[in-house]
Amino acid sequence: MNKHSFKQLHSFLLLWGSQTVSQLGTAMTDYAVIIWVYSQRGTASSVTLLTVCTFLPTIFFRFLAGSMVDRQNKKRIMLIADLVAACGTLAVFVLHSAEVLQIWHLYVINFLLSLMNAFQEPASFVAVSLLVPKEHYARAGGLQGFSGAAVSILAPALGALLLAAGGLDLVLMIDLATFAVAFLVLLFLIRIPEPEQQAAKEESFSKTCLEGIRYLKEHTAILRITLFLAVINFLAKLGNDGMLSPFILGRTGNNQSVLGMVESFTALGVLAGSLLATTMKPVKKRTRLIFIATGLVFAGNIFQSLTSRPWLWCAAAFGSYLMAAVMNVNMDILMRERVPLDMQGRVFSAKSTLQNFTIPPALLLGGLLADTVFEPFMGTDSPVQRVLSGFFGTGKGSGIGLMFFVFGLAGMLVSFTRLRKPVYRELDRKEKETIQTND
Asked: H helices within 134-219, ranges in order?
């Protein structure tokens, strides 16, 4: 990065660095809390419910949050959301220190934190668009992907180390300290400009809440890509992205070391993909790259299903998530370039809700299909099962391997068939014009 680029990205780098520190603290807390919850109940459902409480409010309140982000000061929204989230962490610390912490307390607090995240994410998305020049969108997206992958790699190891050294209380104290760093940097060192168009419109709040959806309806190609991602998320959660842990543990006789190794290569793939997206030249046909990358993600899932060797699982995980990172960065760039700044909060929220609403039912359906259909089928002797066992093996996890293959093949077909759809060609032409203009 040259001196001129560094100067242009100074505020973004401050925001990115401080938020990464805070995200690492939060991720360590998430890891430690899951360990604590499982130690109390010893059931997967208790952990799953914790995840649901973390996820659902973000989806349901996104429309409301997106409208507020476009109408209000982005920095103020981020500060308030961070402060409330810190209060949630502080509440867990106080309750645990007093030895009165109950699992239902964590469900309620996670619900509150997820609600704040519904406001934090669109505000942060717009803030980056306001802080970063268009020619550096890819670099900013790559850096964000890089930090996310680094946090995924470091959080479990550091969380486990801190748990062993000082228990849950120490992890929570570190999380609060990292929050203080991010909060003070944002409060005193970063100025986030507001788009000029914001003061031009005076519309009812209820009307602006739905403007993100209206914008997507009026821009068919972006709506179609959003719905495409909703389908992809659904298929991914039914396959590798949602069922990796039971697949690996089932195939290895509950070997957690192998699972940890595969998950590490997953994070390393995101890390490498983010670095690649940061350094690669501007793409002339961005939607084409998105569809090809997504298809290759599912190709990696198919490859995983057809082998029982851990090093091949690691290689497939690395390749799949490298392409997933490239896809995500380019999707973010497309949204930043195509959506006006004064609409990005609403459109980002609408897009996020539409593409993610398929995830909870897919997670529930995936577990149901694995336990009641695919695993029993591969455990029952039949002519078809004997043929399939030559590809997917036998015993525990073989049925989930078959799921990986079926939904991986479906994901590849959905992805690659988008390449022939003319509705996206106009977006690619616009992307080319934008790149040429920037050059």
From this structure: 137-189, 205-209, 211-218
Q: Rounded distance, CA 35 to CA 27, Å? A: 13
Tokens of 118: 């519904």
145 close to 329: Cβ distance less than 8 angstroms:
yes
Q: For residue 135, give the amino acid letter.
A: E
Report the C-alpha gap between 378 and 389 in whole angstroms.
Answer: 7
Yes or no: say if 235 and 298 are a contact pair by the CB < 8 Å rule: yes
Among 259, 246, 256, residue whose Cα is nearest residue 369: 246
d(CA 19, CA 14) in angstroms, rounded, equals 8
| In 239-370, alpha helices (H) | 240-251, 256-279, 286-305, 310-338, 344-356, 359-369
Q: How many CA atoms does the CB half-sphere of 232 hold within 13 Å?
A: 27
Summarised one tens digit per residue, pLDDT across range 324-365 is 999 998 898 888 888 888 888 888 888 888 888 888 788 778
Q: Is 0.85 topped by the overall pTM?
A: no
d(CA 185, CA 22) in angstroms, rounded, equals 11
The DSSP 8-state label assigned to residue 373 in this structure reads: I
pLDDT digits (tens, 9 = 90+) for 233-292: 999 988 888 788 788 878 888 776 787 788 788 888 988 888 888 787 777 788 889 999
Helix axis angle for 10-41 and 137-189, nearest 10°, is 80
Q: Which amino acid is at 152?
A: S
Structure tokens at 194: 């507001």
CA-based nearest residue to 97, from 167, 35, 169, 34: 169
